[in-house]
Amino acid sequence: MSKATRRQFLRGAAGTTLALPLFESLAAGKDTKTRPQQRMAVYYIPMGVVRKGFFPGEEEAVLPKFVGGIPKAATIARPVGTKAFENLTPTQEPLEAIKGKVSFISGLDRTYKQGTDVHAQCGSCFLSSATLESVTESAFPLDRTFDHIVADAIGQQTPFSTLTLSCNSHKDNKESIHFDNISWYGTGHVTPSIRDVRQAYRRLFGTQARGDFRDITDLVLDDAKELQRDLNKRDQDKFEEYFDGIRSLELQIERLEAMRDEIKSANIGIPADSLLPRGEYIRAMGDIMVAALQTGLTNVATLMIGPERWDTPNSFESLFDKPMSHHKMTHSPQKFINELLQIDKFYMQQYVYICQRMDSIIEHDGSTLLDNTIFTYGSGLGDGTTHQYNDLPILVAGGEHLGIKQGQHIHVPEDTPLANLFLTQAQLLGMELNSFADSTTTVSELTL
């Protein structure tokens, strides 16, 4: 195998392959002056957040009663402008370790188009938010989503132009596809998401069988040992860290599958996936996404943490002694306020875990994977109880080598569209884009 090929893959028995990150030792002509790839990723949480736990100044606000309509909910007035992102709210506390690498943007809104369910539209249109007049063949303001718009510019040379992952492996499809998908090729054309960690692993890293074959790290071990002899010390360390990470992911997948098989054989009467540890499932999907970005299999990825308005319960390990339905609890916040706050913080902890994984991966120029990735956390609802479409919970991590100024809390003027943030990100990624969806301008405070 030539060094040019080895820079991308290890090969083993039964046609298995393992994608590799870029090693400067094997770079053609030893030219390591090229900039790392630009990447974009999205972490979508369902059902909004409990505002008093997430938004500063709302800690003492009275809990709202459930509202089935689509109001523009009143929020605590905050001065427009920018300040240091220092005083973290209870839900934001996990960000303490990375707060210099993340910014909080509050005040961003979306427009609701009458005629569809609030949850269906908030999930399916989060990355689209087309103008109300531009889409006539659907009740949803849903057009080609932002991940595909970006992939048209930075994803055409990668094996996967986009990677679409979901942490909903339940088979009881109670809702339409609009509740459970944030990535769309275009109006009415959903991007199928990968929901099973083993399936995602096989698709990305080239192993097609289970049982008869060993894990892929065993199958390519001979080629790995041969490759290491060609690497300098820095790349050897980088290789060992990456290879150990893939081994760890394999063990994590095996553990989840063994747990699922054990639950099924026990015939408990609850869907097996309801009893799987939710955080471990999310982290495994996050690890797969990070590895795909690290190795150049894709430059654009979305990770939907859970579906909208899907009442099948989930096991939130370390939080509750039985599976709980996030959506049902949002309808009774007075009764479940502590549980809802715990779930919000739990999802934030998983986001921070993925950020830290990205920040631990050193690129060939000394920057980190997080420095070269715009990684957005967000939801299509500002609050799951009121169903409000204004003042959404939005964070942007990373991207400092792409021109993002981090460590800020930016509160934008009233009626600022969420699409303004996406337009800003597109321009930071080098795209000559003057508008996106219902954008009006960029969020200039986010850029250096």
The assigned CATH architecture is 3-Layer(aba) Sandwich
Structural class of the secondary elements? alpha/beta
Order of helices and strands: HEEEHEEHHEEEHHHHHHEHHEEEH
Query: In what range is the share of β-strand residues?
Result: 5-15%
Quantity of strands, as a count: 12
Count of structural domains: 1
| N-C termini distance | 43 Å
Q: State the helicity in percent bands.
A: 25-40%
Q: Biggest sheet: strands side by side, in what order? A: 4-12-5-11-10-3-9-6
Low-confidence parts? 1-7
What is the CATH topology assignment?
Alkaline Phosphatase, subunit A
Structural description of this entry:
The protein has a single domain, classed as Alkaline Phosphatase, subunit A. It has 13 helices and twelve strands. Strands 4-12-5-11-10-3-9-6 form an eight-stranded mixed β-sheet, sandwiched between helices. A two-stranded antiparallel sheet has the order 1-2. Strand 7 and strand 8 form a beta hairpin. The N terminus is likely disordered.
